[in-house]
Amino acid sequence: MVHVKILPDKAHASEEVAQMLHDLIVEKPNAVIGVATGSTPEGAYERLAEKITENRTDVSQLQFFALDEYIGLPWEHPESYHSVIHRCVTVPLGVEPAQVHVPEAPDDSTVGPVDDYDQKIAAAGGIDLQLLGIGRNGHIGFNETGTPFNAPTHVGELTEITREDNSRFFEGGVDEVPPLAVTQGIGTILKARKIVLMAFGEGKVDAIRDSLEKPPAEERPGSSLQLHDDCTFYLDEAAAAKVGHS
Questions:
Q1: Taking a C-beta distance cutoff of 8 angstroms, is the pair 31, 59 a contact?
Q2: Distance CA 224, CA 122 (A)
C-alpha cells in the first residue's frame, strides 16, 4: 500500500524524513538503512546529521546499503557513488566506513545478477527502511523501463534520458556518464520492511502520476511500489500536481 504525503517544499519533506530516520535509529540502534544518491535526499541526510549531533545519538551499530553504483568509474571519482555516499552519509553521520556498503561489479560486467550484494543485505537482517528517488522516466535505483519486478541486484544499461539527467553532475557532460551500472533490483527493494520515496519539482510529475495512478507494469518501474505493504511518497506540490488528475 502506498501512502502519499504532500509537503510545501523539499525542506519540509527533508525534515519529516530525517525525523523518521532518527526515530528509527533511536528505537533500533542496529537498524539497516538503504540509502539513495542524487540531489533529492541530500537535505534529509543533512538534517539527520544535525539530529544525531544534537542528541548524541549512538550510530555505532547501524548498517547502510547504497542502491547502486556506476560500472567503470573509479571509486575515487567524485561522482562515483562510493564517493558520494562517503561524503553525504558516512562522514556527516559519523559512522565508520565498514558500516556502509555500496554494490560492486567488475568493470567488464555488462548484464546479469550480482548475487553477493543481496546476500550481504540478508546477512545483515534485511533493510528496515529504504530511501528512494525516482527518475523522469520512472526508474528507481537504476532499474530502467522493462526491469522485472522480481529482479535481484544486477548490472544493466542506463537509458539516454537517465544519462542526460545525471550529466549535470559531470563536468564533461553526458559523455562522461557511464552507460552501465549495478543496482539493487526491484525485487531487492521490495524486500525492505519500509520504503520512503522522495520526489520534488515539476520534472517528476509524470513519473509520480504513472507510479501512483496507473496499474503496476514493468514499463513503469516506480509502479512496482504499489505492491509493497508499507511505502510512503514524500512529494512537494509540483511533483504531486497530477496526482488525482489522471
A1: no
A2: 21
**Which sign, positive or negative, has the C-alpha torsion 27, 54, 99, 199?**
positive
Structural contact between residues 218 and 190, judged by C-beta atoms closer than 8 angstroms? no
- What are the tens digits of pLDDT across the range 116-130? 999 999 999 999 999
Q: What stretches of 124-231 show up as alpha helix (H) in DSSP? A: 160-166, 186-190, 205-213
Three-state DSSP state, 58: coil
| Measured distance CA(235)–CA(6) in Å, rounded | 5
Q: Residue 216 — pLDDT band, cuts 50, 70, 90?
A: very high
pLDDT score of 65 more than 60: yes
**Residue 193 corresponds to which amino acid?**
R
Cell numbers representing residue 238 in the block: 509540483
Structural domains of the chain sorted by starting position, each given as residue range(s) with its CATH number in brackets: 2-236 (3.40.50.1360)
Give tens-digit pLDDT for 71-115: 989 999 999 999 999 999 999 999 999 999 999 987 888 888 888
